[in-house]
Each structure stands twice: as structure tokens, then as C-alpha cells.
Design a protein that fits this description.
Shape: globular
Low-confidence stretches: 1-10, 17-96
Largest sheet: 2 strands, antiparallel
Helix content: 55-70%
Mean pLDDT: 77
Order of helices and strands: HHHHHHHEEHHHHH
Strand content: under 5%
Number of strands: 2
Strand order of the largest sheet: 1-2
Structural class: mainly alpha
Radius of gyration: 24 Å
Number of helices: 12
Length: 302
């Protein structure tokens, strides 16, 4: 009898504790009525779903739970006792969304179909390969391979920056290429950035066309390559003829193999981010389209 009463008392106590815990969040909120915009993942769509403007806002250096070792390009946001709101974070494209032109999508029917085709190929082939590759190849080696490909695209970057008469960027690209090729094992080690603090440059011919006022044109989803625009297709095609693999590849098969390695290596860094997008987006097609448009617009304005 005493055991049964003890069990009943224990259950009652447990229910009271759970009830108090349930009330604590509302009570603490009530004590601090001043509204502070919450921290959000940079792929969050829910709070912007009803907006007619671009719904994707890219945040740099947002701390995440779990292992972030694969996000090598992202900075680290040090912890602070002061609360940091979403608007306090450094947005690499801050201000660019105000003059963001409207992106036309006249081929939406085809684009959605091709998007689904690419997603099917990604889920069934690319993602398993990229995950196995990430789990097998050490992160430092993957970063080195990525640096190597970036260093090899120096001719495209130099030509693009020269077309824009941006001699500061041109000088940085030349300096980085010479230093990293000479002292960084052909470009695998970013000596210029780590030792001399010469920042990398992201330039291509699509950005050069955009700097001259060439409109983006309609949005197009390419087989395998994914989101693009008419302007970026022209820039990509022109850049292909300046790629080292186009001239120095022993054969078409070798060139395709090199391109495949670059693609898998790049995917190994963003697998988890893409998964987060798939889980959070109300319409993944629109999320990718709007993010790509804002991202490319930001690069042109930089």
C-alpha cells in the first residue's frame, strides 16, 4: 500500500515539475516584452513566405550546432555575452537587395522539370558519392584540391577584372597566382592569403558582362549545372575556352573526369547546407532561384 502511494506521489510531483517547466518560457518572455528579431538559419523561408520581394537573405558566419568542419570557407562567429540579432550580422550582400532587378522566369515549366531531374540525379548519384568522398578524403586535402582548381582559373579571373578596368583586383589575382603556384605546391596551399593576407577574388565573365549593364535575361536551369541565366550562360561558355583543361586536357574523357572531380569536391563542402534547404524551404525551386539571383547580383556589385 505504501509503495502504491509513493508511486502516486512521485507521479504527481513529476507532473507538477513538467507543468512548471512548460510555463517558464512564456513567463520569461512576458518579463522581457521588448521584441528582438530571432536568430534564423540563412535558408529560413517561413517568415518571408508571404513577401513579394526576394525571400532569401544570405548570412555569413552564423554559428550552428554540431560539426562545422566542412564549412571551410565560412568565418567563425565568436561567442558573446551580448545577444546578437539577425540584423546585427554581417551580410556580404547588404544593400544589394534594394536595387535587385526582377528576374524573369518565362520557362518556369521547363525549369521546374529540369530542376526535378537534376535533384533526382543529385539524390541518387551525386549525394552518395559526395558523402562517401567527404568521409574518405581528409578535409585538408579537399581544401587543397579546391584551392588548386581556383588557382587554375586565374586566366578567367584576370581577363574578367581587366575588362572591368579593376586593376586592384587584377593585381591581387596575379600576386596570389604567382605566390601560391610558386610556394603553395601549385596552388594547393593558400600562402598568399594565410601569410600575406591577400584576399581571394571571385570573378568570371558573367560578372564582367553584368558590370557593363548587360541584363541577366531569363532564368534557366541547365542540365547537371543547375541554376543560371542567359547572361551567365554566355559568360560560362566564354570562360570554358579559357579554362586550362580545355587546352591542356589530354582527351575529352580526362577533361570530363577533372570536371567531375571538381564538382564532387565542391559538393562535399555543402551537402549539409543543401539538406537544410530541402528541409526548410516551402518551395525549394523558388528558394534556389531567388538565392542564385541575389548571389550573382551581389557578386556583380562587389
Amino acid at each position: 500500500m505504501h509503495k502504491i502511494e509513493f508511486i502516486k506521489i512521485g507521479r504527481g510531483t513529476l507532473l507538477i515539475v513538467l507543468f512548471l517547466l512548460f510555463l517558464l518560457p512564456p513567463l520569461s518572455w512576458a518579463e522581457n516584452p521588448e521584441y528582438t528579431e530571432p536568430m534564423m538559419p540563412w535558408w529560413d523561408v517561413d517568415s518571408y513566405a508571404e513577401s513579394a520581394e526576394v525571400t532569401i537573405k544570405l548570412e555569413k558566419s552564423i554559428p550552428r550546432n554540431g560539426d562545422s568542419s566542412d564549412n571551410a570557407d565560412q568565418g567563425t562567429l565568436s561567442s558573446s555575452k551580448d545577444s546578437v540579432t539577425y540584423e546585427d550580422l554581417d551580410d556580404p550582400f547588404a544593400g544589394d537587395s534594394k536595387d535587385l532587378p526582377i528576374l524573369s522566369d518565362p520557362f518556369e515549366g521547363y525549369n521546374r522539370w529540369m530542376f526535378d531531374v537534376n535533384e533526382t540525379m543529385y539524390s541518387n548519384m551525386m549525394e552518395p558519392v559526395a558523402r562517401a568522398y567527404r568521409d574518405t578524403v581528409h578535409e585538408n586535402i579537399r581544401i587543397g584540391i579546391r584551392n588548386l582548381f581556383s588557382n587554375a582559373m586565374a586566366p578567367v579571373k584576370i581577363f574578367s577584372s581587366l575588362l572591368q578596368l579593376d586593376f586592384e583586383k587584377t593585381g591581387r589575382i596575379i600576386a596570389r597566382t604567382l605566390i601560391n603556384t610558386t610556394f603553395g605546391f601549385g596552388g594547393m596551399v593558400d600562402v598568399a592569403g594565410e601569410e600575406y593576407e591577400i584576399d581571394s577574388v571571385n570573378e568570371d565573365l558573367g560578372q564582367a558582362l553584368g558590370s557593363f549593364g548587360v541584363p541577366t535575361g531569363p532564368y534557366v536551369v541547365l542540365p547537371f549545372f543547375g541554376p543560371s541565366t542567359a547572361r551567365d550562360i554566355v559568360g560560362r561558355a566564354a570562360g570554358t575556352f579559357m579554362s586550362p583543361t580545355f587546352y591542356f586536357g589530354p582527351s575529352t574523357g580526362v577533361s570530363m573526369g577533372i570536371t567531375g572531380e571538381e564538382t564532387v569536391n565542391d559538393l562535399s563542402f555543402i551537402i549539409d547546407d543543401k539538406k537544410q534547404l530541402e528541409d526548410s524551404a516551402l518551395d525549394e525551386y523558388e528558394s534556389v532561384r531567388d538565392f542564385y539571383h541575389q548571389y550573382r547580383h551581389g557578386l556583380v556589385k562587389k
